[in-house]
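Below is the data:
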Amino acid sequence: MTNLKHSVGKANKAKSTGQTQDEQVYCHIFDAILEQRLPPATKLSEEALADIFDVSRTIIRRALLRLSLEQVVVIRPNRGAVVAAPTVEEAQQIFKAREVLELAITELAVENASAEQIAQCREMVSKENTAFDQGDYGSGLRLSGEFHIKLAEMANNAPLLAFQRSLVSQTSLLIAQYETRGQSNCSLDEHSALLDALEAQNKEQALQLMKEHLQHIRAKLNLTEDGVSQDLHVVFSDIIKKRSAN
């Protein structure tokens, strides 16, 4: 079983910043989706999650509702929640929306990105590179998604940022469900090149690089494969062990 020591990064930060319990649970599950530890169609038992996170089922419901609004969780009446499993048609729609959104974000990021934000993104790319080099695919994928969320922060547009969070996590589901395994990761150099274009305020080049980057992600997908479910107690085993040790 892959080491899950990085699985609670956002939620641990949430605790230190005084976020609510349902926000912390949301962060845990959101990270697990980005890291592909919660594949499409995984059943999200309220009872199991409440036990894992040592919170009430009301808190779990609030976190799952928030994730459902971002379209990465589906809440089925009288049957509970599951991680979304996009169809081929839905996958095509998600990528079209992602293309339109990313280009808008890139254009605004060229205009608004600060030197500090670009430096933070370069550090993120370095960590992403290290994760993939060490074979930690889940953490690498999460950092890749967070890179694109950081770009949306650079755009300085709150609605675009909210939409980007949803599409990034939905794309992670598509990769988990449909990606052809064994292909090399090409995003690292592409991320660095995109940051170079942002730093140079070269809008035309940045837009072209983003188009190519999204095309490469799309080209890795084989829209015929299904995801597999995982036991929630295995996915969040690090959280359970940490609580038991306290």
Observations:
- The chain has two domains: 9-84+226-245, 88-219.
- Residues 1-16, 225-229 have pLDDT under 50 and may be disordered.
- The domain at 9-84+226-245 is CATH 1.10.10.10 (Arc Repressor Mutant, subunit A).
- Strands lie at 43-44, 73-76, 80-83.
